Structures are given as structure tokens and as C-alpha cells.
Amino acid sequence: MPSIANKFNRLGTELAVTCARYSRKPNCVHLLAVSKRQPVAVMRKAYAAGQRAFGENYVQEALDKREQLQDLDIQWHFIGPIQSNKTRDIANSFDWVHSIDRAKVAERLSAQRNPALAPLNVCVQVNLSGEKSKSGVTLGEAEALCSLIATLPNLRLRGLMAIPAPLDTLEEQRACFLPLRLEFERLQTLFPGLDTLSIGMSADFEAAIAEGSTMVRIGTALFGARPG
Q: Element (H or E) spanning 77, and its range?
């Protein structure tokens, strides 16, 4: 089986080739390693290979990992659904939050963020597929939530995030991402700090990069199937 280092290097090459294929600038797409349910030892191997940004879905799991990995200079991203009773831990234990989907959560994160810390980098989650099982605002609601976040003192609005329903072909995937890219570009004219389009996972990152992704969230292609 390929080592984590080999997978990391191979994935980096694949991302670079994909960027070139769609005339994207080199290194314009950042890799977020989705490490939920991955052992700390595996994360250490990814870190040793050069990975610095890790995405977690579960608050308590992430807190435990932070404690065990405090010797490493990791950038912690929260990418899962946000429960109101978890906002204090999320506000103070992460550098980024990708999954803000309602005003109440944004307000709580800002109010509970330690002002001694840098502002929390945040993305608004958009539900592209209209699935009731997925969090996120509609495309039409994204601007209003961005406007609110822009007024909150301890948050820094960075972009949009989406987790679309699985689609089989590159063309279908691109067609799904396209409206989000267009809305992202429109919102950039209103919010100058908007610089992050967090789309693309192991099965659809080519389509995401083709449609302007600046951050792909990769788990399986880097770590293999999640244990448990």
C-alpha cells in the first residue's frame, strides 16, 4: 500500500496537473486534509509529508486531537454541521469554520470567540442540491448571511462552501458547481475580502477546480477509506 507521504505527493501532482488543465494558476488551490475518524498517528504522517491544514467534523474528536497534536503547527478547520451548544468550543479551538448556515450560529461564534485571538475565518455553507439532509442556505440567501457576518467583530468572512449530492460525470458535477461560482464572483464585488471557494472532494475535485475552487477538502484520496 502507498504510504501517506506517497499519497500526499501524488495528490499534490494531480492537483497541479488539474489546475494546468483548466488554466488555473499554480498553487491557487489549497489542500484541506479531511481527517475525521483518522488516528492521530496518521495525521502526524501527513504533517511530516508537508500537510498543515486539517478538517474535522466532530467537535469532541477534534478537541482530543488538538490536545494530542499541540506540538504541531496545525491549522484547524471545522467543516461539519454546527450545533448551537458547541459554538463556544468551535469559536475558540479552530482557525476556520466552513459550515455557517444561519445567523444565530454566526452571532454566537463571534460573541464567544476570545477577542485575544485573531478573527475566526468563516465560510457560508450553500446547499446546492436542495437536500433536506444537508445543511446550508440557498444561493439566494447567501448574500444576506454574508452581510451579517461582515458586521461581526470576531469573524472574518472568507467565502462560500458546498457539499453537493454525488453526481456521476464531470459535466454533471461542473453544471452543479457553476451557479455557486457565479454567485461567488458576484459576491466578491460586494465583499472584497471574499477569497475562498471551498468546493471539491475526492470524487469531484476536478470539476470543482474547473469551476474555480480555491480549497479542496480531500479525505479518501489522501488517507484511504475512513476506519470505522
A: strand 75-78
